[in-house]
Amino acid sequence: MYNINLISGDGIGREVMDAGEYLLDKIDLEFSFTYGHAGYHCFKKTGTTLPEETVKKAKKSDAILFGAITSTPGQPSPIINLRQKLDMYANLRPIKSYEGVNCLYDDIDILIVRENTEGLYSQVEYEEDDKVIAERRITKEASEKISKIAFEQCQKLNKNKVTCVHKSNVLKKTDGVFKDAFYKIGEQYPQIEKNDYYVDAAAMYLVTNPQRYDVIVSTNLFGDILSDEGAGLVGGLGLAPSGNIGDKYGLFEPVHGSAPDITGKNIANPASMILSIAMMLNYLDEEEYAKKINDATEAVLKEGKIVTPDLGGQATTMEMTKEITRKILEGDN
Fold first, then answer.
1. Fold of 1-94+235-333
2. Residue 112 contacts by C-beta under 8 Å, 6 or more apart in sequence?
3. Which domain of life is it from (predicted)?
4. Does the pTM of the predicted model rise above 0.70?
5. Does pLDDT of 259 surpass 50?
């Protein structure tokens, strides 16, 4: 039995978490669930966006599912803090086009590997006279660790090339460290092609010629921006799953936010949560069930009949979830 810690968060995070829990209850694996709190509503009740009790429950679990949070003015990000507290230093964001989904390209299959614990997301900011300063912290150790993850994922996915994205022509010291670490680790993988781009060029190529990429590895902020850009090429954030991986812990979450404009309407696309669950099951070495979930989701998207409004349909969140679940259980995909 797997112990899964569920942290719904705010807005549609709660709705897609209900969908995810429904699916996990139906498939032929045993799960127990613990429940944690984080985010804006949590702050209103407890005075903190990430209670220590939530961190303790997360550490005791086999994996964590996270919904979405609404930012709390003046307060640190709970998901960034949780990543740092559990040293989940690698953020994996697949960018994949699906048949049946209206998108710019129909042949994209990229993995963006984002360093998850430092860079500008160190959240170290301070005022000095009339200036406000944000600290960008890049270390050789973290850069080598994330580069190794990128090359290992390239091998695992049977891909051919890893691209390092940086801005070392301007950020000569910090991104210089990152670029040097990438090529140092790359020496251990002579069979994998390696190249690098400045982030502005990389962003342009992602729009104009995304097929040039297999695996992209980058620093925290650049990786965050590029992964959302990539999601826009394949149908939006409703189809964008992610995994946060460290040496001890794994947290999986849809990339989308809390979407207060549609909260309570039960029309949130559950696909990114469901695809994140598939990533979680791969992390737990349940590859067969991960494949079933991916195949069933792809089949529902291809048919386009029982999908949410963002995909051109009229289904509710749970109706689409139940159709994907039905295909998993019946093998109808």
1. Isopropylmalate Dehydrogenase (3.40.718)
2. 92, 93, 94, 95, 215, 216, 217, 218, 223, 226, 227, 230
3. Archaea
4. yes
5. yes
